[in-house]
Predict the 3D structure of the following.
Amino acid sequence: MAYLEIKNLSKKYGEKEGIQNLSFNLEKGKILTVLGASGSGKTTLLRCLVGLSSPDQGTVTLEGKNLIQVSQEDNIFSRIGLVFQSFHLFPHLTVLENVALAPLLASQKKIIFKQKTVLNDDRARTEAERLLEWVDMSAKKDAYPCELSGGQQQRVAIARALALNPEILAFDEPTSALDPALRGEVTRLFKDLKSRGKTLIVVTHDLDFARSVSDDVLLLKDGKIESQGPASEMFQTSIPIAFEKNLVE
Amino acid sequence: MMLAVSFWEVTEALLTGFGNSLIIFFFTLLFALPLGFIFAFGAMSRKKWIRLLFRGFIWVIRGTPLMLQVILVFYGPGLLFGPTFSFQSRLAAVILAFAINYACYFGEIYRGGIESIPQGQYEAAQVLGLNRKQTFTTIIFPQVVKRIIPAMSNEIITLIKDTALANIIAVGEIIMVAKETVSINGVLWPLFFTGAFYLIFSGLLTLLFSKFEAHYRYYRSI
């Protein structure tokens, strides 16, 4: 049984096909990159995986459990985390509050964040501080997102997504909002996440970045799988052809 | 002919009138601020008939003069359903008309604030497993408050001046008292003095809203 199994996943937006009958498997602890031109269905796939869009048909099975039908108690969001392309940090909360919010609310604590609130839940606070230390953002824990650079915002967004301890972490275009000089830092962060046993799904346009982090590659064209396989093979054969055909940019 | 009238007599009369203006002002806020949320959510409802109903109502209220609404609310029930349904208190009729009118304006401001929050904030909350109530109270509402302060401060300053419309059904607010003082005593200065009451009160409101804005300046949208 595959760790993550996607079967016949389809999603239409009106008359427009988003993705059509996508099926693929992913092993635990691997990094899968999803490549394809704009409009190929990469983001639609990601949205269906994390529950932001409901697929019209198909299943997403994680360790034998269909995530699309899971109950509220064991909801999809705690199993697959997402780091958005433009991070979507909560601007009125400090870095620490951004990271601690989901675990606090999940533990049914009644909280209202006010200006310069000191979090009084020790466990959530300690865990959030540990995550911020890991992404090297401890020094900025009391800052607001508007005071951070793009790279710092991304690290906070990663810490926030990890706060619910998801088994899989998905990234939408992780390098697009960053200075090219920060690409190496993201690559290191991804490898670190992998070494901690996280499974990553990365949607990207950035071929160099994909080459440096991927274990497996999925190439999409018009909402369908054009080719898939281990990164070493894909970057030897399919990707150069896809690049010539403008299937990747 | 000019009659002698003391400054203190005028001040006392104007203060009584301004007391009524303040009663209208505070009770209107008390009812209209929460009622505005009902109008905002109604106007954003996913059900088309609810949306149309609320938007239609808001269109009628915003499209007709508040003075007309005050008259209608005060005289309407008695004329339509008989004297038993007449308002016993003129002040209550004014407050009802004002509350409905201002709730429509506040509702539109709330709606604008809620709709101005980027979709990404809702999606980020959703992927973190927040339910709709948690998303609204913890993520959306605090950001909406910051965005609507300037528009709300405008409306609330307009409200104190609009209380003058109550004199159309003979509620003794400050302008009515001032008019009576001027016509009885044949002096003009109580009118300027009345203006000072409004200026001081709206000045205090301006200061209060500046404090609110400063309080929310601790973050910027990204």
Notes: The beta strands of chain A are 4-13, 16-26, 31-35, 57-62, 65-66, 80-83, 168-172, 199-203, 216-221, 224-230. Helices of chain A lie at 42-50, 95-106, 122-134, 150-162, 183-195, 207-213, 231-236, 238-244. Chain A touches chain B at residues 50-52, 75, 77-78, 81-82, 84, 86, 88-92, 101-102, 105-106, 111-113, 115-116, 144-146, 153, 160-161, 164 (CB under 8 Å). The mean pLDDT of chain A is 85.
